[in-house]
Amino acid sequence: MNKxxxxxxxxxxxxxxxDIEAIRRYRxxxxxxxxxxxxxxxxxxxxxxxxxxxxxxxxxxxxHTDHAETARLAAVKLAVAIGTEILQLVPGVVSTxxxxxxxxxxxxxxxxxxxxxxxxxxxxxxxxxxxxxxxSTWEGIAAASVLERExxxxxxxxxxxxxxxxxxxxxxxxxxxxxxxxxxxxxxxxSGRDDFTAEDDPGVLxxxxxxxxxKSRGYETVVMGASFRNTGEIxxxxxxxxxxxxxxxxxxxxxxPAHLAPxxxxxxxxxxxxxxxxxxxxxxxxxxxxAMATEKLAEGIRNFVQDQERLETLLQGQLMGHRETxxxxxx
Length: 331
Prior knowledge:
Transaldolase, cytoplasm, alpha/beta, transferase, 8-stranded parallel beta barrel, 14 helices, EC 2.2.1.2, Transaldolase_1
């Protein structure tokens, strides 16, 4: 067996892409998208029909004079449309992200998540096959706690610190996505080192710590390592509940016939849970005390917002072009 086949025996492999063709090739259990991936996908020719359908739907459900708002609505519909297409290829679930501009607004995050689930329901997709991706801010975790109680399962993303992981577990979220590669990026820049191995990779060590904490204390929240920079990081975390991997690294694993590294331990000794839950003040203090996590969380939100806005600009441009064509055809 190649390394990808071996990895699938120990972890659920998730495709970190919105590219239908890549998902069809690597046959992952689940798939996950984000604004950056959707922006890239929207530029591929195979998505033109979905974009046209999303724009038509948005025009039907919104005031035609506000082009920006129509494009925002079309972006929501497109995310669900691509997610629905992906679910025809994977047996598990797809993750669809809440607008990152709402990362510090609990109520708006809840409302956006409900809208996504409603659109999936209209497309005939049961909520059990969808994970709502939310940034791991205090407000995002609070929103996820409410949504989980409603039966809307959540994937807490942009997770860089131990306190974020603890708060997510205590909130009862379905899944977390700790970002391995982005943690490594920060430490490389901060230390000037460029020789980290899989065994001293700060991102790998962070996920190992979180995984041990969850398993030793009986938390059911799934740990899904994300944002990998190389296959060494992936191998070091083999055995993690799930691993979301880009098509490029999936290909490298598929082409490698060697034996997969040992990865995570299969058994963890039981330890007691904390007597009291992590409160907001302590959460914010711990996050603030972690320079890497504070900087990468803020950067991640900014980048997702930027790509969300780029996607909406692309959709707005297509909307305007479509209307100009209609005007010329029907003067």
